[in-house]
Write a structure and sequence with these properties.
CATH topology of one domain: Elongation Factor Tu (Ef-tu), domain 3
Radius of gyration: 71 Å
Strand content: 5-15%
Largest sheet: 7 strands, mixed
CATH architecture of one domain: Beta Barrel
Length: about 350
């Protein structure tokens, strides 16, 4: 009797433990009475997917998530899935699409592929996929707006800082600027008044100057014909100069200069009569000697004219040099001019 009581207690404990395990697996969605197949997939972000999350196929629950663990590289989350639909054929090109509802609850939707010639077996990995929920879509829409708002706020802060720098503490810089503008306006008003006084004081001079300008304009108007004639005359002179053989004149001038150049070269080179006359005394001495001989001859003729002039009288014979009337007249003139 004693052993029977202990046996009953042992059976009761084992049953309780079995019931507890069944309850835990039931709460996790596991059906301990069916043959389940285990598959794996990986995600970069599981969006609050936890063990016990539902696995669906066309809206029907066909399994649950068993575990979500980091891989060795710690860049992906390995998700272990238990599928209890034993008749479901899963092609290799199928996908395990992670989705979340409006409340943020995540689940996995099995999307079958078309390659039924190659099926996945228990323990294989299903390609991951991701479907954005309302919250993710809202986040995607809100993020750019948030960035733009942040950018605008930053620009606004900079603008306010710039305005604050310009205004200074309690608007001190603004007051200084307004005072400076007021002083500038006062100075400008004073200058305008001074200019007005100068203009009023110089009205007579300005009027006189304008009158002089008008008079000069009138004189120019009256002299218009003369100016026209002057221009016409200048045009005629230009035409006359155009008709002059300037090229020929220049050519003749060049020839004359060439002759002068040749004479200068002869003088510098020691050739020609000009060089002898300028640089040599021989020609001068010869001329002087000739003049002295001429003077002696004239004096001799003057002293002894009968040696050179004999005139026939009464048919006598002529003696000496025979001169005609013209030569005799020139000789007598030379003799009379001698002292």
């Amino acid at each position: 009797m004693k052993y029977k009581k202990e046996f009953v207690i042992g059976i009761t404990v084992v049953g309780a433990i079995a019931l507890l395990l069944f309850g835990i697996n039931f709460l996790k969605g596991k059906n301990v009475f069916n043959t389940n197949r285990t598959f794996y997939t990986t995600y970069g972000n599981v969006q609050a997917l936890v063990p016990g999350s539902v696995i669906k196929f066309r809206g029907k629950q066909i399994g649950v998530v068993l575990n979500v663990d980091l891989n060795e590289a710690q860049d992906r989350l390995v998700t272990e899935m238990s599928i209890d639909e034993k008749d479901l054929k899963i092609p290799q090109d199928s996908k395990a699409r992670l989705a979340s509802d409006f409340l943020g609850t995540s689940s996995i939707e099995i999307v079958l592929g078309k390659d039924y010639n190659n099926l996945l077996q228990a323990g294989d990995t299903i390609n991951p996929d991701f479907k954005y929920g309302i919250s993710e879509i809202a986040t995607q829409k809100i993020d750019p707006i948030e960035k733009q708002i942040n950018f605008l706020l930053e620009k606004l802060n900079k603008s306010l800082a710039s305005i604050d720098t310009v205004l200074g503490t309690d608007g001190a810089n603004l007051r200084k600027m307004m005072n400076s503008m007021k002083s500038t306006i006062n100075t400008l008003n004073t200058t305008i008044v001074d200019v007005d006084k100068v203009v009023k004081g110089s009205t007579a001079e300005i009027a006189s100057t304008l009158a002089n300008v008008a008079s000069i304009t009138e004189n120019l108007k009256k002299s218009n014909q003369k100016v026209t004639n002057l221009i016409t005359n200048f045009s005629e002179i230009s035409d006359s100069l155009k008709g002059v053989d300037i090229a020929g004149t220049v050519a003749e001038a060049k020839e004359a200069l060439a002759g002068v150049t040749k004479i200068m070269e002869e003088i510098n080179n020691g050739t020609g009569s000009a060089h002898q006359l300028i640089y040599s005394d021989e020609l001068v001495n010869n001329v002087n000697s000739m003049l002295e001989e001429t003077e002696r001859l004239v004096n001799n003729i003057k002293e002894h004219p009968k040696r050179y002039l004999q005139f026939a009288v009464f048919g006598g014979k002529d003696k000496g040099v025979k001169l005609d009337a013209t030569d005799e007249k020139k000789l007598r003139k030379v003799l009379d001019e001698q002292p």
